[in-house]
Amino acid sequence: MRGLLLVDVQNDFCPGGALAVPEGDKVVPVINDLMSKFSVVVASKDWHPHRTVHFQKWPVHCVHNSKGAEFHPGIASASIQQVFLKGTGDKDDGYSAYEATNLDLERYLKDQKVDELYVTGLATDYCVRASVLDSIKRGFKTYVVTDAVAAVDLKPGDGKKALDEMQRAGAVLVESKDL
Questions:
Q1: Binning pLDDT at 50, 70 and 90, where does residue 41 land?
Q2: Disulfide: which of 28, 40, 55, 61 matches 3 by Cβ 3.0-4.6 Å?
Q3: Domain 2-178 fold
Q4: What amino acid positions are annotated as catalytic residues?
Q5: What does the pLDDT read at residue 66?
Q6: What strands, in cross-sheet order, belong to the sheet with 141-150?
Q7: 62-84 tens-digit pLDDT
């Protein structure tokens, strides 16, 4: 069974947000087109408290129950069956969707009989990377949909380096048109 994971496609990571990924909103129509091709669609959200050590590294973003923590308004959120909240503690970075504190992503996917996971979202070089690497470690055949992810690229090329690292770890890079 194939599942689709949307990583952090939230307002604060899109243009105009507190920690915007350049052109992060361009993944939205691609993701929406993909959702109908999967029977299991899940998403992660950064869901930070007002004060966290995470904000020593990054600008304040995706504070729980804030507009910035909401999904991008263009995401067809009604198609998402379960949302996994991460980064919820005051000492919790929560990069990987598998670090969710409200539900166990691995257990949920296995209960749904998912053995192939297709990963999309923001940002390629941080939360997507961490989620993909953790997915591989947990035994899922893991795919990165390259036209449905976008990188922060703090240093030019970070997104490409992250994709290379994920591929070396066992992820398969695919484009949405091939699904």
A1: very high
A2: 40
A3: Rossmann fold (3.40.50)
A4: 8, 86, 127
A5: 97
A6: 82-86, 40-46, 2-7, 116-122, 141-150, 172-174
A7: 999 999 999 999 999 999 999 99
